[in-house]
Amino acid sequence: MMTKEVVIKTEKLTKRFGDFIATNEISFDVYSGEIFGFLGANGAGKTTAMSMLCGLLTPSSGNATVAGYDIYKQTEKIKKNIGYMSQKFSLYEDLTPRENIRFFGGIYGLSDKEIREKSGRLIEQLGLASEADKLVVSLPLGWKQKLAFSVAIIHEPKIVFLDEPTGGVDPVTRRQFWELIYDASDRGITIFVTTHYMDEAEYCNRISMMVDGVIKELDSPANLKEKYKAATMDEVFFELARGAVRKAD
Amino acid sequence: MKQFLSFISKEFHHVFRDRKTLLLLFGMPVAQIVLFGFALTNEIKNSKIVICDYSKDAVTQKIIEKIEASNYFEIEKSLKSDKEIESAFKAGDIKLAIIFPSQFQQDIMRGTGTKIQIVADASDPNTATTLTNYASGIIRDYQSENGGMLPMTIGTNPRMIYNPELKGSTNFVPGVMALVLMLICVLMTSASIVREKENGTMEILLVSPMNPMLVIISKAIPYFILSLINLVVILLLSVFLLDMEIKGSLLLLFAESALLIITALCLGLLISNSTNSQQSAMIISLMGLLLPTMMFTGFMFPLENMPRPLQIISNLVPSKWYYIIVKNVMIKGLGFSYIWKETLVLVAMTMVLLLLSFKNFKIRLA
Amino acid sequence: MAAVTVDHLIKKYRQDKKTSITALNNISFSVKEGEIFGLIGPDGAGKTSLFRILTTLLLADSGSATVCGLDVVKDFRQIRKQVGYMPGRFSLYQDLTVEENLRFFATVFDTTIEENYHLIKDIYVQIEPFKNRRAGKLSGGMKQKLALCCALIHKPTILFLDEPTTGVDTVSRKEFWEMLKRLKDQGITILVSTPYMDEATLCERIALIQTGNILSINTPEGIISNYPEILLAVKGDDMSHLLKSLRSLPEVKSCNAFGEYHHITLKKDLKLSETDLQKKWNDQSLQIKEVISIRPTVEDCFIRLMMETSKAS
Description:
The complex is a heterotrimer. Chain A has one domain: Rossmann fold, CATH 3.40.50. In chain A, about 35% of the residues lie in helices and about 25% in strands. Chain A has 9 helices and 10 strands. In chain A, helix 3 crosses helix 4 and helix 5 runs parallel beside helix 6. Chain A is globular. Chain B has 2 domains: about 230 residues, no CATH class; about 120 residues, 3-Layer(aba) Sandwich (abc type-2 transporter like fold). A 4-stranded mixed sheet of chain B has the order 2-1-3-4, sandwiched between helices. In chain B, helix 2 runs parallel beside helix 9. Chain B is elongated and about 85 Å long. By secondary structure, chain C is of the alpha/beta class. Chain C has 10 helices and 14 strands. In chain C, helix 3 packs parallel to helix 5 and helix 4 runs antiparallel to helix 5. The chains are: A alpha/beta, B alpha/beta, C alpha/beta. At the B-C interface, helix 1 and helix 8 of B face helix 2 and helix 3 of C.
C-alpha cells in the first residue's frame, strides 16, 4: 500500500523555549500509508516535534505541512485530518465505550447514522459486545488502548499520531494492538508512532532517531541494524542515544 | 525532633515556592479586609432623602441640620405634604423620607411626646434597615445632647452602643477574621496533605520510621504559624487602614484565635482523610465551609432574624462562637469572664474533631 | 532465612456493590536474601498491590506475608525501619531541589546524607551537578536516580522498586540495572517489578504475573528452558500479510509478531528442516525469506503461559 505520496513534510523545523532549542532544524518526509516510528531518548524533543505537527505548538522557525496543510496557518484543517492518541489521555473513563465512540464521532462531524454503524462494527471487531455499556474505567488497560486507537481513527484520518500507545500493556494485547495498526496502515492511514519498546520499532517501515533535538538517523530498521552492525534495534538505539548530552525533559 | 524540624522547613519551602498558594494565603485576608472594609460595607454614604416638615420650628431645623451634616444623607428636597412622598419614592433615587409632625417643638416642651416618622424604601431591606438605624441614631444623638428632653421616638439598634460612629467595619473585621482563619486553615491543611497522597510521597512517608501521627502534626504546625501571621496582618490592616481600635486584651485575642485555628486544622485533617485528590479537598473545603461560614457566623446576616432551625444549625459553625468572642474582646473590650462559655463551646468542638480525625487517621493507604 | 515470604495472599478491590476486581489471587512465593527478584507483568497484574502489602501500606484480604522475618501486619513499625521503597509514580517533592529532597528523606529516616553517602555515591555523583535544580525539572532518568538515592539513604536491607524503569529510555534503563547489580553486591535484597519483558533476564529469579495470578516462578533461564515446543522465527517481505497467511495454515499452532520476525509454533513436529519448511510454505505462495529455529525469550514464555491460562478459564 506504500505510495510515495508525502503526507508529512518538515523543513528545518525548529522550536526554541528561551535559550533551549527543543527541536533543532529537523527535516523529514513521511509517506502515505507508512508506519513511521519516531524514536528518541527522554528529552530528545519528540513530544515537542509531535505537538507542532498536530498543530498544538507554533514552531519558532522552519516549515512543515501535514496532510497537505501548513502548520502555521491551517492548524484547524490539520486537526480535522489527523487522529491522536496518547498513553495519558485517550478516553473518558466515566463514559461507556459506546458513549465514547458517539462523542468522538460527534466532534469529528460524523452523522448519527455513520456513528451508529461504526460503533456497532467497532464493538464487534474488538469483542466488546458484553462491555459496550459498562464504564471504560472497568475495562482492562489493553482493551482501553485498543478502543482508544479505534476511536482515534473513527473519522478515517490521513494520519494518526500515537504517543507511546502500548506502555504497560501485556504482550498479547500489545500484538493485537499492532495488528490494528497494520490494518489501519493497509487501509492507507499513515501511522506516526513513538514507543519505548524496541521490538515495536521493528514493526515500522522506517524509523527516525532523535538525539538532542536533531534527527540522527532515518531509515528502515533493517538498514539501520546493518549500518550499526547491531543484532537488535535496542543496540542501535543504545549506540545513538548513549552520546546524548541533553538530559532535561 | 530533627525529623520534625526538617519536616516543618520542607513545608515552608512548599508554601514559599508556590506563588499561587502564597498569594491566596496572604492576598485573601488583605482583599477581604479591603473589600468588606470599604467596598462592600453596609455603611451607606450620601443617600438621597426627602424631608417633610409640618412644624418648621427651631428643633426640627436643628435635627435637619444635623442630618444634613452627617455623611450619610443628602437632602434631595423638602416636601409640603406627606402625600408627595409616594411619588418621590417612585420618581427615583430617594431611599428615605423623614416626616416631622406639626407643633413638634411645642409637644416636646410640653412633655407630651411626639413622633418622627421614618419611611424607608424596603425593596432593599438591608439598606432600609441601615438607613433607618442611621437616622434614628442621629435623632437619638440630638436627644442626648439636649439633656434627654426629647422622648424616645424611634427604636434604636442596640449595636450602636458600641459603634457610636456607626462604622460598618467594626462588624466586618471580626467576621473577616473568622472567615479567613477558617478557610485558610482548612483549605491549606487538607490540600497539602492530599497533595502528598497525589504525588505518591505519602507512600514513602508512611513507609518511613517516622510516626504517621508526627507527619500530620508537622503538617499542621507551619499552617498554624502562617495563620497567626495572617491574623497579625488583619489586625494591622484594621487598626491602620480602617482606624479600628482593639479595646480588649491582645493576648486573649490571640489565644482565642489560636483555638479557632486548631479547630480549623482538625477540620482540614478530617477532610484530607476522606478524599484523595486536591481538587475534591478544595471543593469540600470551599463549598462546605465558605457558605456556612458566611451565612451562620452572623456578620453578614444577623442570626437573630433567621428562622429557628437555621439558628440551631448556626450553633454548629465554629466561626459563630469565635465571632462572638472577637466582638466581645476586640470591640467591647470585655475580659475572659464574659466569653468563657463560647470558649468552652470551641474547645469542645476541637476535642470532638480531634477525636474524629485521630480515629479516622490511617497508618496505611486504603 | 527468606527475605520475603508471601503465603496465599488475596486482595480484592470492591468496585460497586456487586462486582469486585481481584488484584491478587492466592499468591505465594519467597525471595531469598541478597537476590534480585523480578515481578514481570503488565499494568493491572497486581504488582503494585503486592508491593503495597509488603511495604505495610495495604492490608491483604487473606493470607500472610513476612519481610525480614517480620509480619507485615503485626510488625509494621519494624518493617518500616528496614525497607526502602520506590513507588511507581514519581514520588519526590517536585518543588524541592535535588539536595533538599535527599536531605529531607534522610532526616525522615533518621539519618544523614553523610552517614550513608558511600551507599549512594555511585548514583548521586551523576545527579550532583544538578543538586540545586528542582526535582520537577529533571529528566525521567535523573528523577529515577534521585528517587533511588532517596530510597537507599537509610541503608535498607530490602529494596522494593515498583516499575522503576517505566517510561524511561533504553540508555537510562541500562544504567539503572547496572546500579541495581552493584547494590546487590553490597548485600541488599531487591524486589523489582517491570512491564518490560526484556528486563527479566537481568534478574536472578522472576515471577511472571498476570491479572493477579503467578504464571510461573523460576530463574529466567529455567523459564526459557521449560518452553515445551520448538519455536520458529519467520521473516518475509510483507509482514502484515504473512502474519495472516501463517495463521491460516492448518499446521501452525500459534503465530505472533515479534519485531523483525514472526514467532510460530507448530501443532505437531513436521519433521522437516527449516529450509524444507520454507520451501513447503513458499510453494503455497507465502513469500517467506527466512525460517530459523530459535531459543524462546521470556516474552515468548509469557505469551504462551497467558494463552494457556486464558484457555483454561
